[in-house]
Amino acid sequence: MHKKAYLTHPLRDGAVQCRVCEHFCAIHPGEIGRCGVRRNEDGTLYLTVYGEAVALNLDPVEKKPLFHFLPGGQILSVGTYGCNFRCPFCQNWSISQQGDQPGYQGHTAMPEMLVETCQRYGAEMIAYTYNEPTVFFEYTYDTAQLAHERGIRNVYVSNGYMSEEMLEMLVPFLDGINVDLKGFTEAFYRDQCQARLEPVKRNIRTIAQETDVEIEVTTLLIPGLNDSEEELRAMASWLAEVDHEMPWHISAFHPDYQMRDRPPTPPASLARAYELGKEAGLDYVYVGNVTDVDRSSTFCPECGELLIRRRWYSVDERWEERGVCPRCGHRVPGVWS
Ligand code: SF4
Question: Is residue 49 within 6 Å of ligand 1 at its C-beta?
Answer without folding.
Answer: no
